[in-house]
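From the methods appendix. Each design record in this collection lists the tokenized structure first, followed by the designed amino acid sequence. Records were kept in a plain field format so they could be parsed without special tools. The example shown here is representative of the layout used throughout.

RECORD:
FOLD TOKENS (203 positions):
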């Protein structure tokens, strides 16, 4: 059974660790209208593959400048994607659901070698109709809470320089810039830098 993290649309938020195998997100603000809605954040399973395919189709159709452009994954590919985030002990995939619909995801892919097993690469995305409501922040806080009890002490993430909103979000929750991968991605025929950020211990 997937572990659940529940959040309510109320003025303040924070992470509360209740047990090594269970995380709970305390009240969180989701939007500006003061409407009380429930956002559930939980670990994904292969049973979520079909919903993830639908989510990916919506996301990729936007052709956002800050996302890689790719075909919608097949059900088999999405199952493999989930397993890659759920089988290793230092990896996880969290999904956000609003009224039963998948509206965001955040993942950690842990490094393989023992001396780097404390390091994981993060990814984050939120459905276009639900951005700016705090769901991305909530997902990242869920990753941080999960990482804290699974031995992941350094989290790395990248954002294209054409996606300043993502960079601001990452820095707001504690990521620091490590540098650039210059001209790392080609978008519409132009080279775009990838901004490298990390959150974790410093030697």
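DESIGN:
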């Amino acid at each position: 059974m997937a572990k659940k993290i529940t959040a309510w649309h109320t003025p303040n938020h924070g992470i509360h660790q209740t047990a090594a195998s269970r995380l709970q997100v305390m009240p969180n603000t989701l939007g500006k209208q003061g409407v009380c809605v429930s956002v559930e954040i939980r670990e994904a399973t292969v049973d979520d593959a079909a919903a993830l395919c639908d989510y990916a189709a919506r996301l990729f159709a936007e052709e956002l400048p800050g996302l890689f452009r790719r075909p919608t994954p097949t059900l088999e590919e999405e199952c493999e994607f989930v397993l890659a985030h759920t089988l290793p002990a230092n990896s996880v995939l969290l999904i956000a659901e609003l009224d039963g619909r998948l509206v965001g995801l955040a993942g950690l892919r842990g490094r393989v070698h023992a001396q780097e097993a404390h390091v994981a690469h993060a990814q984050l995305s939120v459905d276009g109709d639900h951005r700016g409501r705090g769901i991305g922040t909530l997902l990242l806080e869920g990753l941080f809470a999960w990482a804290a009890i699974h031995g992941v002490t350094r989290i790395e993430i990248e954002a294209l320089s054409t996606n300043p909103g993502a960079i601001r979000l990452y820095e707001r929750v504690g990521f620091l810039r490590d540098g650039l991968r210059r001209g790392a991605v080609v978008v519409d025929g132009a080279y775009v830098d990838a901004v490298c950020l990390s959150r974790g211990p410093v030697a």
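APPENDIX NOTE: Residues 5-29, 31-36 have pLDDT under 50 and may be disordered.
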